[in-house]
Design goal:
alpha/beta; 4-stranded parallel sheet; 6 helices; 8 strands; 22% helix; globular
Length: 274
Amino acid sequence: MAASASTPHTTDFPAEGRCSYYVEKKKRFCRMVVAAGKRFCGEHAGAAEEENARKRILCPLDPKHTVYEDQLAKHLKKCNSREKPKPDFFIQDINAGLKDETEIPEQLVPISSLSEEQLENLIKKLRKASEGLNSTLKDQIMSHPALHDALNDPKNGDSATKHLKQQASILGNIEKLKLLGPRRCFVEFGAGKGKLSHWVDIALKDAEKVHFILVEKVTTRFKANGKHRKKNSVFERLQIDIQHLCLNKIPLLSKEKLPVVGIGKHLCGVATGT
C-alpha cells in the first residue's frame, strides 16, 4: 500500500461517507464509498485496526483488486473478471493473423533478452519485410473546437492536458478525413473509460442516428459513456479482446447497416499491428 492510513494530512479530509485511506501516489483520500459504521472501503479495510484479523489477498482472476481470503469462493462467482459465456461475435483468434507453427516460438521473449547477434538478425528481418513500403509518417497534430473549453480549464494537470490534446488532435484528423458526421457507427477500440467517444459525441452535437460501440477487454470504472442520454446517440460496451472480435456478428452493426468508423487512442497487443 502507498501509505499508512493513520498518517495525518492537515490540508485535506475525506469526504463524508468516503474511505479514510490516504493514497500517497495520488495525493488525496480514496473516494470509494464505505459501509455504514466503517472508516475504510473494502479495498483498504486492511488498514483499519478492527479488520486486521481478516486477511485480504489478490483476486486470482484479476490481481488489480483484492478480496477477503475467507470470502474468495463467494467472490469468484460474481467477480467481473470471471469467465462468461462467449457471445456470437467472439471467434477465437479471428484477428490474430495466420500462424506458421514452424516459425512462431512456443513462448514469447522480451527483446532485452536477445543477444547482440540475435538482435542484428531481427533487425535484418524487419528491414527486409518493410522493403518497398511507404513507411514515412508525417505528424498531423490538429485540434477541434469541441475541446476548446476543456483544454483551457485552469484546473487541468499535466496528465489531463496531455490526454485532451491527443483527443482534440484525433477529432481534428477525423474531421479532416470527412468521417465526423451523422448516420454512422463509431467503434472505439481499446476504449477504456470511453473519453474519445465522449468527445466525438460532443463534437457531433445533435447529429442524427449516431451509434457508438466501445470495445475494451477489461472491466473499467468511471465510464464516460454513462453521462450520455441524448436521444440521437446510442452507446454500447463490449468487453472483449479485439483479437477475438468479429465485427460482422455484432447485432447492432448487422441490424442498422451503418457505415463503420474505427477510432482509438491507445492500442497494443494482438490484432493492432495493421
